[in-house]
Amino acid sequence: MKPRLVHRTLSAAIVEQLRQGILSGAFAAGSQLRQDALASEFGVSRIPVREALFQLEAEGLVHIEPHKGAIVSGFALDEIDDVFDLRVMLEPRLLQRSVPLLTSSDHQRIDALGDAFADALARHDVARWGELNAQFHLALYCAAGLPRTLSVVTSLLQASDRYTRVQLTRASALARAQREHRKLLLLCREGRLAEACDHLVAHVEAVRRDLHRLLPPPSGRARRAPPRRA
Q1: Are 104 and 61 in contact (CB under 8 A)?
Q2: Which residues contact 80 (CB under 8 A, 6 or more apart)?
Q3: Residue 220: pLDDT band by 50, 70, 90 thresholds?
Q4: Extents of the domains making up the chain
Q5: Which position has the higher pLDDT, 161 or 81?
Q6: CB 164 within 8 Å of CB 130
Q7: Contact of 177 with 134, CB cutoff 8 Å
Q8: Is the pTM of this model over 0.85?
Q9: Is the distance from CB of 3 to CB of 17 less than 8 angstroms?
Q10: For domain 77-214, which CATH number applies: 1.25.40.10, 3.30.450.20, 1.20.120.530, 1.10.1740.10?
Q11: Helix-strand-coil percent breakdown of the chain, rounded to 5?
């Protein structure tokens, strides 16, 4: 039976159906999502299907290749853990060194990024979520005076981009991201650096836990719990 597309726009309903299929593993990494086949399955024209695939590309769930169309992206939990292990080691170090040296101009930029991130979340502008999230974190670390570490963290945040987009497709994750960013800024402004670093680690680990819940384990392997931290 074709899924019933009720009370939502066609493209939004198709996005939700395909997103759940990808996150559940029903559409395996590397498989092709053909517009004509999907249009036939959903009983619609190719236009809303095309719009849905562009939306999924913005979320990092598919990548669109010339002459091939939409290909389901792969998400390796071991790779995610590697990225997030490094983030929780390096980002608090940058934050602790940077916050006491931030200028009023730096704070204005951070405030503007926080507002832009909240606006992107409110408008469900997924193409901007990861980009603004990375800019927000890097703005907090800009005065650390540790260029090599900052370069590594910049690369890690770029690698985290599509993971963050997937995690933020959940409404509860959106609200939590806003709350956690606001609290992190408050702790930094009040000079409570130890609490700010602990909160930053908890913020990064919350994203990791969400990803472990959302993404299917590798074929033939049991899902392992993400590492717990004191």
Answers
A1: no
A2: 163, 208, 211, 212, 215
A3: very low
A4: 10-72, 77-214
A5: 81
A6: yes
A7: no
A8: no
A9: yes
A10: 1.20.120.530
A11: 70, 5, 25
Give me the CATH topology for the region 10-72. Answer: Arc Repressor Mutant, subunit A (1.10.10)
Cα 205-207-208 angle, rounded to 5 deg: 60
**Cα 202 to Cα 69: distance, rounded to the nearest angstrom:** 38
- CB-based contact 196:184 (threshold 8 Å): yes
Task: Name the nearest CA neighbour of 181 among 202, 150, 160, 163.
Answer: 202
Our CA dihedral for 134, 129, 181, 202, rounded to 10 degrees, sits at: -70
Residue whose token pair is 């979320």: 59
pLDDT at 80 over 80: yes
Chain position carrying tokens 């987009």: 165
Reduced to 3 states (helix: H, G, I; strand: E, B; else coil), residue 72 is strand
Q: What percentage of the chain exceeds 90 in pLDDT?
A: 51
